[in-house]
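Tutorial, part two.
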Amino acid sequence: MSSLTGPQLYNIMYGKDRIAYEVRLQEIAVFYSGANLADRFTDFVDSGVVLGIHAKSLVPGGDCSETATFIPATFLSELTEEHHTNQRAFCLFEQHTGVP
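Running the prediction step on this input gives:
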């Protein structure tokens, strides 16, 4: 995971076919509201910067299925000289909804 932009996947293949060269979080829609009229109807679209530094571990049964496979991510931060590993940065699971 990039410490600046968060999760990134490269060269995703299906069999022998490349289906994606790069997939990553580009932007986040952040919705603010407040008591005054201007804040109540304001929507900001912020760039996804420093997401990796602020990433927290996912919770089984809360963020992901209890049966999910958790995938760690390691990244460097300018805040420390050592690398940081988040043991539950990503989760992979199948959720059968019955809809084809």
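The chain has a mean pLDDT of 79. In part three we will examine how such features are distributed along the chain.
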